[in-house]
Amino acid sequence: MTQMTFGKVVLPVVLLLGAVALAGCDKAKSKRPYYDGVQFKIKTKAVDKKASRADFTVEVYDAALSLDGARQAAYHSGVTYCLIEAGYGTSLIDWDVDPQDPETQLRLVDGAAVFQGKCQS
Number of structural domains, the chain? Predict the structure, then answer.
Protein backbone atom coordinates (compact mmCIF):
# COMPACT_ATOMS: atom_id res chain seq x y z
CA MET A 1 0.00 0.00 0.00
CA THR A 2 1.48 3.34 -0.97
CA GLN A 3 1.70 6.21 1.44
CA MET A 4 -0.87 8.20 -0.54
CA THR A 5 -3.42 5.36 -0.42
CA PHE A 6 -2.63 4.67 3.24
CA GLY A 7 -3.39 8.33 4.10
CA LYS A 8 -6.68 8.20 2.21
CA VAL A 9 -7.77 5.18 4.23
CA VAL A 10 -6.44 6.08 7.69
CA LEU A 11 -7.58 9.72 7.83
CA PRO A 12 -11.31 8.98 7.37
CA VAL A 13 -11.11 6.15 9.91
CA VAL A 14 -9.42 8.42 12.49
CA LEU A 15 -11.99 11.16 11.90
CA LEU A 16 -14.85 8.70 12.26
CA LEU A 17 -13.46 7.29 15.52
CA GLY A 18 -12.97 10.81 16.88
CA ALA A 19 -16.56 11.74 16.04
CA VAL A 20 -17.86 8.60 17.77
CA ALA A 21 -15.79 9.37 20.88
CA LEU A 22 -17.09 12.94 21.07
CA ALA A 23 -20.68 11.79 20.58
CA GLY A 24 -20.24 9.45 23.55
CA CYS A 25 -19.15 12.34 25.76
CA ASP A 26 -22.28 14.29 24.90
CA LYS A 27 -24.52 11.34 25.72
CA ALA A 28 -22.86 10.83 29.12
CA LYS A 29 -23.72 14.39 30.13
CA SER A 30 -27.25 14.13 28.78
CA LYS A 31 -27.92 11.12 31.05
CA ARG A 32 -27.32 13.20 34.15
CA PRO A 33 -30.56 14.13 35.90
CA TYR A 34 -31.60 17.74 36.36
CA TYR A 35 -31.81 19.26 39.83
CA ASP A 36 -33.53 22.64 39.92
CA GLY A 37 -32.88 22.90 36.18
CA VAL A 38 -29.14 22.12 36.35
CA GLN A 39 -27.20 18.98 35.35
CA PHE A 40 -24.49 18.79 38.02
CA LYS A 41 -21.33 16.73 37.87
CA ILE A 42 -21.39 14.67 41.08
CA LYS A 43 -18.71 12.51 42.67
CA THR A 44 -19.66 10.11 45.46
CA LYS A 45 -17.10 7.83 47.09
CA ALA A 46 -16.30 5.96 50.28
CA VAL A 47 -14.04 7.80 52.71
CA ASP A 48 -12.00 4.61 53.30
CA LYS A 49 -13.19 1.46 51.53
CA LYS A 50 -10.89 -0.75 53.62
CA ALA A 51 -12.33 0.45 56.93
CA SER A 52 -16.01 0.84 56.02
CA ARG A 53 -18.09 1.65 52.96
CA ALA A 54 -20.70 3.27 55.22
CA ASP A 55 -18.80 6.57 55.49
CA PHE A 56 -18.87 8.52 52.23
CA THR A 57 -18.47 11.96 50.69
CA VAL A 58 -20.49 13.65 47.96
CA GLU A 59 -19.06 16.48 45.87
CA VAL A 60 -21.47 18.51 43.74
CA TYR A 61 -19.46 20.60 41.29
CA ASP A 62 -20.47 24.14 40.27
CA ALA A 63 -22.90 24.33 43.19
CA ALA A 64 -23.31 28.09 42.79
CA LEU A 65 -25.44 27.43 39.69
CA SER A 66 -28.23 26.42 42.09
CA LEU A 67 -27.68 25.83 45.80
CA ASP A 68 -31.10 24.17 46.10
CA GLY A 69 -30.28 21.95 43.13
CA ALA A 70 -26.90 21.08 44.64
CA ARG A 71 -28.64 20.01 47.86
CA GLN A 72 -31.08 17.83 45.90
CA ALA A 73 -28.25 16.30 43.89
CA ALA A 74 -26.25 15.49 47.04
CA TYR A 75 -29.23 13.88 48.74
CA HIS A 76 -30.09 11.76 45.69
CA SER A 77 -26.48 10.72 45.21
CA GLY A 78 -26.13 9.76 48.89
CA VAL A 79 -29.29 7.65 48.82
CA THR A 80 -28.16 5.94 45.60
CA TYR A 81 -24.74 5.26 47.14
CA CYS A 82 -26.16 3.68 50.30
CA LEU A 83 -28.77 1.61 48.46
CA ILE A 84 -26.74 0.37 45.53
CA GLU A 85 -23.00 1.07 45.64
CA ALA A 86 -22.34 0.40 49.32
CA GLY A 87 -25.04 -2.27 49.47
CA TYR A 88 -26.63 -1.23 52.76
CA GLY A 89 -30.15 -1.49 51.36
CA THR A 90 -31.39 1.59 53.20
CA SER A 91 -31.85 5.23 52.33
CA LEU A 92 -31.32 6.32 55.95
CA ILE A 93 -28.23 8.50 56.21
CA ASP A 94 -26.58 10.41 59.06
CA TRP A 95 -25.39 13.61 57.34
CA ASP A 96 -22.82 16.02 58.73
CA VAL A 97 -24.64 18.79 56.82
CA ASP A 98 -28.18 17.70 56.00
CA PRO A 99 -28.82 18.50 52.33
CA GLN A 100 -32.58 18.55 53.00
CA ASP A 101 -32.28 21.39 55.54
CA PRO A 102 -32.34 24.66 53.56
CA GLU A 103 -31.21 26.62 56.65
CA THR A 104 -27.93 24.72 56.97
CA GLN A 105 -24.81 26.47 55.64
CA LEU A 106 -23.23 24.59 52.75
CA ARG A 107 -19.52 23.76 52.77
CA LEU A 108 -18.04 24.92 49.45
CA VAL A 109 -14.58 23.83 48.33
CA ASP A 110 -13.36 25.26 45.01
CA GLY A 111 -16.95 25.83 43.91
CA ALA A 112 -18.12 22.33 44.84
CA ALA A 113 -20.60 21.66 47.64
CA VAL A 114 -19.11 18.92 49.84
CA PHE A 115 -21.24 16.66 52.03
CA GLN A 116 -20.30 13.77 54.28
CA GLY A 117 -22.64 11.03 55.38
CA LYS A 118 -22.85 7.60 56.93
CA CYS A 119 -25.23 4.92 55.72
CA GLN A 120 -27.28 3.51 58.58
CA SER A 121 -27.40 -0.25 58.80
Answer: 2
